Structures are given as structure tokens and as C-alpha cells.
Amino acid sequence: MFWILVFSLFIGNVFSEDVRIVSLDIGDLRGEKYWNGDFYEFYGVPYATAPTERDKFKAPLPVKPWEGIKDAKEQYISCEQIYLLDDDSDEEIILDGMEDCLTMNLFVPKVANEDNLVPVLVYIHSGAYSGGSGNMAKFNYLARHDILVVSFNYRLGFKGFACLGTEEIPGNAALKDQLAALKFINKYISKFGGDPKKVTLAGFSVGASMAEILALSKATNGLIDKLILESGSALSPFAVNRDPINTAKNLAISMGYNNTEKIEDLNEFLLNAPIKDLAVKSKNFYLTNSTFGLAPCIENVIGTAEPILTESPLIIFHKGGYEKIPVLTGFSNMEGISRTIKFDEWSDLMNEKFADFLPADLAFDNDKSRNDFINKVKKYYFKDEEVTHDTVQGYIDYFSDSMFKYGIMKSAKLHAMKSKKPVFLYEFSYVGRLSFKHYFMDRIKGASHRDQTSYLLDFFEFTNEADDMNTRDRMTAMWSDFVKYEDPTAYESLLIDLKWPRYTNDKQDYLEIGNTLKKKKDLFQNEFKLWDEVYEKYYWHPMPVVAKKTVNKK
Predict the structure, then answer these.
(1) In CATH, which superfamily holds the domain spanning 2-538?
(2) Exposed/middle/buried for residue 345 (C-beta within 10 Å: 0-12, 13-18, 19+)
(3) Going by DSSP bridges, is the β-strand pair 194-204/226-230 parallel, antiparallel, or unpaired?
(4) Does the pTM exceed 0.90?
(5) Cα 253 to the chain's mean position, in Å?
(6) Active site residues
(7) What residue stretches are annotated with the Carboxylesterase type B domain (predicted)?
(8) Sign of the CA dihedral 124, 236, 198, 61?
């Protein structure tokens, strides 16, 4: 009687609607139906193997097959990182995450199967290149629209972004993880019910910057067919490290490296550095030059390794040799609110030496050129007054424009210029319970950096406000319709009562996403002109890293 009961439960579990088993040539996976939606969740699915020891900075290795059926339930896998602590904290710094972390999560609609393939949406997470994971949000609000949604982990900090141009530390390990994830999806997604020919790559913040870099790379040809960018671009000042060897050298010195000015010594030091120390020194959320310290680099081709990025993204745009795909891109109306955390400290420093707060991707030919531009900035954003609490809106607008909006708009214009595929541009202005909380909420109401993503995904925050839920319903419907039809307003509804017009450089239409949807024109026009004039003259094109003697530069 006992064995009959066990057998009945086993049969019921495998073939009930609460479970789906997917068979791959590397092993079988068991996913469970989400408790409040018609889709199955597969967590912790290995897509590659992280190399170890002296190979830990290299491209990922193939996934290791497994025996039997793997329960895809591991929701808390992340790559090695540390959490920020106060500078004066006495708490012990704890390394979180694991080395063998290259896993993905798949949210598979009930209607999806090998005979009914559905479009796929793949998200690259944010975290300033040193934190976050594919589990930092839940994707149920998008998955309920009958698209297959994927998130994944990639190596973080110096493991993911150290770049010396040497055989052991060639650079862009994180981007190579992301490429491996896309190749895994291309090979296996049909087994889950996803269409490998309809894969939209999306990202938020630095995830958006990396998504666009991948879209511009020949390495991803045939792997993605649409692109969604939320508050980031390959042309953002934080998107590419212009001096990765000195970034690595300065980190090593902070860890006790005796700077010998020899690349082989720096290479050896990083290969033997404790991962905890590397993770601690990788955290740079707030640098004055609008970067995060670490970032992808321009690679040299080393041996048979497949490079991701071998030219400046702007040069790739101008050459036009990348695959042309539809793009949905935009930003929040006050991205710079995210920088107000440092306002009290930075306002004084900006008054003392504003040059330290210019974007890192500008390289002026002399002091006069730089100072002339600083004077323009001070006049435009601060009306020639000091940076104080009275001019905090100018502070917010300055960082909104310099760190985020200019690069995103430049990217949108280039996509529209170089491609016949549709470009859809938005500005997100909605403020609700899920929006970023800041010190100036009594005076300033606007959407901060990455706020739009808080309504698309679920960052484990709760709201029952009708306007919040309407905004979420609007946005997830538009994003999923773009994934399905290349048209974010393919179908009108009570919440979506207009057509989102394509952006072109002639008409410059865009959609404002606030309490309602509004069609508008000429987004960021005056500010773009101000910044474009200086970038046309002084843009610092990143160059391939050269493994020579380290440069003695502070």
C-alpha cells in the first residue's frame, strides 16, 4: 500500500499542471508553476562554468552535464560580491555569493511548448559592475503576458571586468559570460517553448549599457532580434573603461601591491589576490566623473579567444557594420536624483573644483577649453550661482544630462540614422510608491535613475496604489508587445489609448510615461545641443588595451 501511494504521488507530481520537466542533452530540469500566474519558474539553471584559479579572469567554460532530474529551485545564487558598509562601520565585511555562479532563471508561460514557441525577453541586471544578480528582481509581471523571460548572473567586480590585455587577464569576462548565456538560450530555449529567432535583449542602468555593447558586437550576430534599454547606453560615460590598466594598478596598490611598473608583476598580483579583497575594492557606486571605476574595455584579440568589443562603440555606430534591430530606449526625467545621496559632500567639492565632476569620456586639449565649457555649464545649470540647496535642481539636472540623458539620446539618434528598423523613445516621469526615495522629496518630484524598471520588474517592494498598478500594467503590456510585435502599442486598451510613434531624426516623436501616456516631440533638444557641441570636439574614444609597462598615472 505504501509503495502504491508513493508511486501515485510521483506520477501525479511529474504530470500534474504544477510541474514541468524539460529535457536537455546536458540533463533534465524540473520547474514549478508560479503560485499566482500561468507560468513555470526554473531557477538556478547552469548555462556555463566559471573558470577557476589562474584562469578565473578568462572566458567561461561549457556547462557541466548532470545526472537525473535537477530541481530548478535555487533562487539565491549570486556571483561573488560584498555589500556596502558605512566607512566608520565596525562590522566585519562578509563576502557573499559563490564562484560557480553562472546560472539563469527562466519564467516559462504555460502556453509555451516546442509546438507553440513564444518570444523571449532576456534581462541583464544592474549593480555598477560590482553587485546585483539575476535574482535581484522577480519577473512575474512580464511573464504573465505570455512571453518567456530570462535573467542570469555574470561575474562581477574585478573578476568580471579586470582588463590587462594579457593571456591570463584579457578583459571583459563578464561580457563573455553574457555571450555564453545568449548562446545557451539560442541552443536550448526551444526546449522550454521559447523562440530562438525572437530574442529581445534588455537591460537597466549598466545592464542597458552592456546590452547595447553586445548588440553592437559581431559576436552576437543572429542571437538577438530586438533591444530594450532602460537608463543606460553604450555611449554613457560609465559604459567603457578608458584606462583599465591604471584602474587595475590603483586597485592593486590599495591592496598592498608594490608598483614595479611591470605588467607581468601586476598580472601576477591580481591572479593571486584574495577574492574578498578584489570584491571590496570593486565597489565604486559614487565617483565624481560619472563612472563606477570598473567597466567593459576595448579588447585586443589574444590567441583564439573570441573578443566582444574591439572598437569604440561610437566608431562602430558610425561604421554601421552591426546588425540592425528594433530598439526601445529612454530614461527617467530626473535621473540625477540618484546622485543626491552625495549632495552635501559633492556640492562643496563642485564649488571648489568643478573640473573633477566632468564626465570621464571628455578629454580637453587645454585648460582654457575645459574652463570655457565649465563656465557654460555653470551658467546653464546653476545660473552662475554656487551649488547649494537653493540650486539643487540644477545639480540634479546636471547629472541627469551628463551622466545619462546625453549618451542615451545620442544612441537613439544613431540607431534612427543608421537603421531602417523602428526606434521607440520614451521619457518616464511617473512617481509612486515604488520610486526612488531621496532627501528632497518635499521639494522635488521626479523619476530617478532606473525608476521605470521598478514598475516593470518586482524589486520585492509592495504597493496597492491604483496608479502604481495601472503604470505597471501599461508598461508591462507595452514592453511585451514590443517583444512580440516590434510595436509597443500594437493593441489599444483602457490603459493604452494611443499609438506610440516611431522616433526619427526628422520628426523626433517620443512617449512620456507619467500618470497617463502622452505623445510629445523634441525631447532633450536644448540640452543635447549643449553637450553635443563639446562631445563633437572632445570625445575621448576608448582604445584597445595594450599590455605594456604600466603607466605611472594617478
Answers:
(1) Alpha/Beta hydrolase fold, catalytic domain (3.40.50.1820)
(2) exposed
(3) parallel
(4) yes
(5) 29
(6) 205
(7) 20-531
(8) negative
